Amino acid sequence: MARMRMVLGRPLVIGALTAVVVGVGLGLYWFQPWKLWQDETVQEALPSAVAPTVPEAEVPSESPSPAPGPRTLAGGALISHEHATSGSVKLVRLPDGSHVVRLEDLDTSNGPDLRVWLTDAPVKEGRAGWHVFDDGAYVSLGKLKGNKGSQNYALPADVDPSRYTSVSIWCDRFDVSFGAAELART
Prior knowledge:
Blueprint: H1 2-8, H2 11-31, E1 41-43, E2 71-77, E3 79-80, E4 86-93, E5 99-107, E6 114-119, E7 138-143, E8 148-154, E9 166-171, E10 176-182, E11 184-185
Parallel strand pairs: 1-8
Antiparallel strand pairs: 2-4, 2-11, 3-10, 4-5, 5-8, 6-7, 6-9, 9-10
């Protein structure tokens, strides 16, 4: 027992144990393996038109035609890359002229620093498609709200959606796609 205390009391052993503890702590922070067992479900409705309020004095005598609803411009099915991923993606133009990317029935693994990217990269099957989405033009639409469910991601007003051909669930920490969908124009 005294010999064990003497060995553990040496500066080199203390330094090595400290390095191991710090290394394990940093590894856990970086990889966040517990997220593989944590699911977050988000169920958002597709945004709809909000009718502008018109003062009574300005109401036209004829009833106005109803505002057009959201229109799907493109869509596709998600394929798996680094992690099993399923669901569908839609690029939707809202009645006010804005655009959203809608993920429907998404089911993927949770992970650290997941983002939704609108990209110009082709969607490739297998390992060939894991790392292509940051090679060209892309727009990050924000953090993934949940790894399951249906959710909306607004496009910034200055983004031309016709320039982009795919959507990726992108892990920014490890520069890898969890899954992606090619946007076929409708």
